[in-house]
Amino acid sequence: MSVIGSISPAAINALPLKGLDPAHKPVIAAPLPDGMRLAQPAANFGSVLEGLVSTVAEKQATSVDLTKQVLLGNNDQLHQSVIAMQEASVAFSLMVEVRNKLVESYQELMRMQV
Asked: Which domain of life is it from (predicted)?
C-alpha cells in the first residue's frame, strides 16, 4: 500500500488549513534558513561569532556521526551522510570567508592614518 493510500479522510480534515482559515494571520517575515540563529538580536559581536562557530561544529559532528553509522553498517542512508558532509563543508567555508573578511577589515583599519 502506498503512503498516499494510507491517509484517511479524517486525517486530512484534521490538518490545519492555514491558508483557508480566516482566523489565521499570514506570516510577514520569511523564516531563516536552517542553521541561521540570528532571529533575535545578539548581545554582542562575540556572541554572534560564537554562534557561528558552534553551528559549524555541530554540523561537523553530525556529519561524522552519520558517516560512522554508514561505515559501521548501522545505517544504509549513504546520501544523508554525503549531504551532511557537504553541508558541513559549506558551513566551514562560509566561516573561513567571514574570518578572512574580518581580518582584511582589521588590517584596513590599521592602515588608516589618524
From this structure: Bacteria
Residue 90: inside a domain: yes
The answer to whether position 92 is within a domain reads yes
Displacement of CA 86 from its chain's centroid (Å): 12
- Whether 99 is in a domain gets the answer yes
Query: CA dihedral defined by 95, 101, 105, 106, rounded to 10 degrees?
Result: 40
The tens-digit pLDDT sequence of the chain (114 residues) is 455 566 676 766 666 655 555 565 655 666 666 666 655 665 788 888 898 899 999 999 999 999 999 999 998 889 999 999 999 999 999 999 999 999 999 999 999 988
